[in-house]
Amino acid sequence: MSSVPFHRVSHSSRGIVNKDTLRVKVWRSATRGLAAFDVPRHESQTVLDVVTFIQRQLQPDLAYRFACRVGMCGSCAMNVNGKARWTCRTHVSKVAVNGELEIAPLSNLPVIKDLVTDMSAFFDKWSRAKGQFSGERTRHDDFARVSPESAPRKAADAGIECIGCGVCYSSCDVVTWRPDYLGPAALNRAWTLMNDERDTQARERLRAVAGDAGCHSCHTQATCTERCPKHLSPTAGIAGLKRMTMKAAREGDL
Ligand code: SF4
Ligand code: SF4
Ligand code: FES
Asked: Which InterPro entries does this UniProt record tie to the protein (predicted)?
């Protein structure tokens, strides 16, 4: 996408640019370039508010995605001035540079249209990493009792709040270099399940993440952890998977 020269188009909502106006460049698929818009500034304005203004007032065919507006669903993630973020929780005042914003779709994912990416590969990798819980109890059994104080429970808790937004995946250089790499979110999910005492697929999951495109491809520079809006640390979980797979390999248990 970045190799295509940007085609700039200008649309003004009020005809003039002043300090109460934000200059916003937005990726449009039709022209394979950035289109520029002038958007009125408001107090407490979020980047999602800006995109919504453009779609409602200036370009009705602009495609973008959101649902909850409060940082719960993860669907509004986009690149804002070069970094992946939740747009609904990103205030313009924190990210605008000289009154300007550049908004593009998430990196490392195919673009369906404008700011909307196809997340299929992202979620397929959760499946490849055996990111589904597999228990053995039935509805007729009592609930499992897992102590909140146990070390595995604490490790699982530390990664469990992932909402699958793709910010970490979009920020990961290794995914860019080798698209088959499972990536931080799928590996973080695998780590939480490896620490779930009720799960029965530990060996299969370790095999799934130990391969060439798995945890050992991570370079541990922690961009995923730095960018995760939930303040999770996929890097720490991946390091845990590296230790587990090495131990299992040494013991002939992989
Ligand atoms: S780990 Fe964080 S950044 Fe990555 S998908 Fe989950 S919530 Fe989003
Ligand atoms: S620490 Fe690993 S998973 Fe996270 S961004 Fe870097 S290479 Fe990707
Ligand atoms: S719209 Fe749901 S997290 Fe932003």
From this structure: 2Fe-2S_ferredoxin-like_sf, 2Fe-2S_ferredoxin-type, 2Fe2S_fd_BS, 4Fe4S_Fe-S-bd, Beta-grasp_dom_sf, Helical_ferredxn, SDH/FRD_Iron-Sulfur, Succ_DH/fum_Rdtase_Fe-S
